[in-house]
Write a structure and sequence with these properties.
The structure holds 2 protein chains of 2 kinds. The longest helix of chain A is centred in the N-terminal third of the chain and has 38 residues. In chain A, a hairpin with a 5-residue loop joins strand 7 and strand 8. Chain A is an alpha+beta fold. In chain B, the strands form 2 sheets. In chain B, strands 6-7-8-3-9-10 form a 6-stranded mixed β-sheet. Chain B has a 4-stranded antiparallel β-sheet with strand order 2-1-4-5. The N and C termini of chain B lie far apart (39 Å). The model of chain B has no long low-confidence stretch (mean pLDDT 85). The chains are: A alpha+beta, B alpha/beta. Chains A and B meet through helix 1 and helix 9 of A and helix 1, helix 2 and helix 3 of B.
Chain lengths: 373, 236
């Protein structure tokens, strides 16, 4: 630390430039993680928020809720199975809400209708107004982002292509699905909207997309055995099965991976060149008795100082950007993710300094004599 | 007990392709505490190899090197680095200071390498620098010092760890006559007052007047040169 800190103080410009590169890398990593997180939330927040552990689907639906259609009659049966603490049906449909005057092109809003049983564990808590109730099948609760689109509590809106109209009785927050605003409707009303066309329900009694199950260690084989024509997957698997979700997060992960690998090489090369420039200095220190350990510690602690400072500034910049971004931008910083990526960046920087440490151990103190005969 | 530095029949060979070059050929030499010895000779004669072996930077191919009863020929790399830190003070050709440490820190780093810097160490560093006429430059950095001042800092650094042996490699190489006399007389003064065994490798025959003995090295062989007084005459 002794050498590391003094050198930084004497060579501010040089270290500031390296720190600048590191800050930009850190910034990019955090921004990308925020965008990725934002997209994933947009795609599946409502699904992730549900306090369920497993999902019961139609056989052959490949863990995808949208490909599955089963009868809600199974709910009572599945509740009797071991380890199942709770079960509740769910249905999802994409729809378009029409604002008061729907003749203008701005008068339409894409929404995801999520049908749940009023009062069940799938219904999110409202932050304004009241929850769903059996008595008012047209009363719905919507994500508060609908307010930004001009909808107010108590407003009634029509659905494009149907004669159904819905009334907002409450607002919830952080509820999006399939990249659009989530609107929770009583499941009976959801059925009316979704299966208005003859034959759409495939002749099932009380059709729903899936039944969400609560309980740890549910044996999916046992559930499938008890209920014909079904399959059970974990909620995590069902999230991966959402249309486009896997591909989307795959792209983000890929970018992130490349970014981290490239930054590892970049930082490694920087530190290495930096060390090469100081070969003579290290030779002198070795000639007067410095051990490899002392010099390696000096280099690693320098990288540590540089990394921690750069990452912290990167985090600060990221939060500054996030405060400036438009609300509609899918950018969500998760503190947990920021901490994880900070640690990854720090580890990468320290690992990349190992090449420098290796070159130090190879420096011959004889070089310090300035001539080798 | 034999104090000081003792080389007995020391030879060193470098492998150059299939050839073997002998840099040192059965060199024997003893330097006692308080003795200031010069080694002169043309370039390529093996002076630097000699200095590297005496300073525990290099291990000889054959022969014994003893520093205060410690046998350097059989020491491990780690031991050598420890011996350099505690027993040897180097004064190098071009002072070779660490560019980002100030004058006082140049000395304290030596203590830092072996652990902690105490109050006594700081006082000792200030005293050394005072003796060498650097009392007013304690917080300056190498790029603010003249060549002679840098070399004097290097001298102080060599004495900082209170070593048994002081080795100087062409300490006057980049200095004018006045500065050169100043620097070598300071080395001689410190060597005498602190009773160190000192060896100076040099080209500069003007400086031999400060030394007790002069050895001449030629093609790896070391021989005692004419007496000091005769040389001193010659210089005058």
């Amino acid at each position: 630390m002794y050498l590391a800190w003094r050198e930084i103080k004497r060579n501010r410009m040089r270290f500031a430039l390296i720190a600048l590169i590191f800050i930009l890398i850190a910034w990019l990593v955090f921004i990308l993680s925020g965008l990725g997180n934002g997209l994933q939330t947009l795609a599946a927040a409502s699904f992730k928020n549900m306090k369920a552990d497993y999902v019961l689907l139609e056989q052959g639906s490949q863990a995808s809720v949208s490909k599955s259609l089963i009868s809600a009659d199974s709910v009572e049966a599945v509740k009797q199975l071991p380890n199942v603490r709770g079960a509740s049906p769910v249905g999802t449909t994409m729809a378009t809400a029409l604002k008061g005057d729907a003749n203008t092109s701005k008068g339409k809003l894409d929404i995801a209708l999520i049908g749940v049983e009023p009062g069940s564990f799938l219904e999110p808590a409202v932050i304004e107004g009241s929850g769903l109730s059996e008595g008012t099948p047209n009363g719905i609760i919507a994500n508060k982002s609908m307010k930004d689109e001009g909808f107010k509590l108590g407003d009634t809106f029509k659905l494009d292509g149907t004669n159904q109209s819905l009334t907002i009785v409450g607002f919830v927050e952080n509820e999006t699905f399939n990249h659009v605003t989530s609107v929770f409707v009583p499941i009976t009303e959801w059925r009316t909207i979704t299966f208005s066309a003859p034959g759409a329900d495939k002749g099932l009694h009380d059709p729903v997309n899936a039944i969400m199950l609560q309980g740890k260690k549910i044996d999916s084989a046992a559930v499938s055995a008890a209920l014909a024509n079904t399959e059970t997957v974990t909620k995590a698997a069902a999230i991966q099965g959402l249309p486009g979700y896997k591909e989307e997060s795959g792209s983000i992960t890929m970018m992130m991976g490349f970014l981290l690998v490239i930054s590892a090489f970049m930082l490694g090369v920087f530190f290495y060149v930096f060390t090469l420039q100081k070969v003579n200095q290290f030779g002198v220190l070795k000639a007067i008795g410095a051990e490899n350990r002392f010099l390696s510690k000096a280099v690693v602690s320098q990288v540590l100082i540089l990394s921690v400072a750069s990452i912290l500034i990167g985090v600060a910049l990221t939060y500054a950007v996030s405060a400036m971004l438009a609300k509609s931008m899918p950018f969500i910083l998760d503190v947990k993710l920021v901490v994880i990526y900070s640690i990854i960046l720090l580890v990468i920087a320290l690992l990349s300094s190992l090449a420098s440490v290796r070159s130090i151990t190879k420096i011959d103190p004889l070089k310090a004599l300035g001539r080798v005969e | 007990m034999t104090q000081g530095l003792h080389l007995n029949e020391v030879s060193h060979h470098y492998a150059e392709g299939s050839n073997r070059t002998t840099a040192l050929d059965r060199v024997t030499m003893s330097v006692l505490p308080g003795e200031f010895v010069a080694v002169i000779g043309p370039s390529g004669s093996g002076k630097s190899t000699f200095l590297s072996i005496a300073g525990a930077l290099l291990q000889a191919s054959e022969g014994k090197v003893k520093l205060n009863e410690t046998d350097l020929s059989s020491a491990s790399a780690k031991d050598l680095s420890r011996i350099r830190l505690h027993e040897v003070g180097f004064i190098m050709q071009s002072s070779n200071l660490v560019p980002y440490l100030n004058v006082t820190e140049q000395l304290l780093i030596v203590k830092k390498l072996s652990g902690k810097v105490t109050k006594d160490d700081k006082a000792f560093a200030a005293q050394l620098l005072g003796e060498l006429g650097l009392g007013g430059k304690l917080t300056q950095y190498p790029d603010q010092l003249s060549g002679g001042e840098k070399q004097r800092v290097a001298i102080a650094r060599a004495f900082m760890n209170n070593p048994q042996v002081i080795l100087a490699d062409e300490p006057t190489a980049s200095l004018d006559t006045k500065r050169a006399h100043e620097v070598v007389s300071l080395i001689a003064k410190e060597v005498k007052s602190r009773r160190k065994a000192a060896i100076m490798v040099t080209h500069d025959e003007r400086m031999l007047a400060y030394c007790d003995k002069v050895y001449r090295m030629e093609d790896g062989r070391l021989s005692l040169s004419e007496s000091r007084s005769a040389l001193a005459e010659a210089v005058r």
